[in-house]
Write a structure and sequence with these properties.
With 202 residues, the protein is α+β, with helices and mostly antiparallel strands. The strands form 2 sheets. The chain has a 6-stranded mixed β-sheet. A two-stranded antiparallel ribbon has the order 1-2. Helix 1 runs antiparallel to helix 2, helix 1 packs across helix 4 and helix 1 packs parallel to helix 7. The protein is globular, with a radius of gyration of 17 Å. 34% of the residues are buried.
Length: 202
């Protein structure tokens, strides 16, 4: 079983155990995977895009106000090292369209006091060569945290590492060496971003 399917199976089990059985079943009935042409465009734009992300998108093409027919899906599918904090999976089209990273230039070029903004040394300091794939926003529309796959690391980093941006206090941190490792960590942390009260408005 590939890691994306393994991740989703575990997620469904965790949702069911924490009061979200109906919400999970509704999600499974509603969503579909990304179109092949969209996945091919993503691969063309990011040649090193991990297979596990493509596999995940092949099952669920986004959960952030994603329109599937007449249904609009809003579902926490991911987490991070920020304990118990949930994230949405962006759709393939959103990943293709959200390429404006200018707001990151000051961070990447280390224009802030290191005591105020912590930047992982595995992250490049050359903004002109930055190649990041934005794949997830946190629960408050990404205003507090966003997740990226980094294809342009510093010499100390690894191509494909997962970077987490956190606001207030501002921080850019590498949270996994690869997307596979990122999913594995979420499983090891027992999907701690899922809570019993997440389903009150479902």
């Amino acid at each position: 079983m590939d890691i994306a399917k393994q991740y989703l199976e575990g997620l469904g089990k965790a949702c069911t155990e924490r009061g979200g059985k109906e919400a999970w079943q509704k999600l499974c009935r509603t969503v579909w995977g990304a179109e092949e042409k969209d996945l091919e465009q993503l691969q063309q734009k990011y040649p090193c895009v991990p297979k596990s992300l493509l596999d995940l998108l092949g099952q669920i093409d986004g959960t952030y106000w994603r329109e599937y027919g007449t249904e609009s899906v809003l579902f926490y599918l991911l987490g991070s090292d920020v304990e118990e904090y949930p994230y949405y999976l962006l759709s393939t089209q959103e990943m293709l369209e959200d390429t404006d990273l200018d707001w990151l230039s000051g961070y990447i070029q280390r224009e802030f006091d290191p005591e105020d903004v912590e930047i992982d040394e595995r992250i490049t300091d050359c903004f002109s060569h930055l190649c990041w794939l934005h794949f997830s926003d946190c629960m408050n529309n990404g205003g507090t945290s966003q997740l990226f796959i980094d294809f342009s690391p510093s010499p100390k980093g690894k191509v494909g590492q997962v970077v987490r941006f956190l606001h207030d206090p501002d921080e850019l941190a590498v949270i996994a060496d690869s997307f596979d490792e990122y999913l594995q960590k979420l499983m090891e942390w027992d999907y701690d971003f899922i809570h019993d009260d997440d389903w009150e408005d479902s």
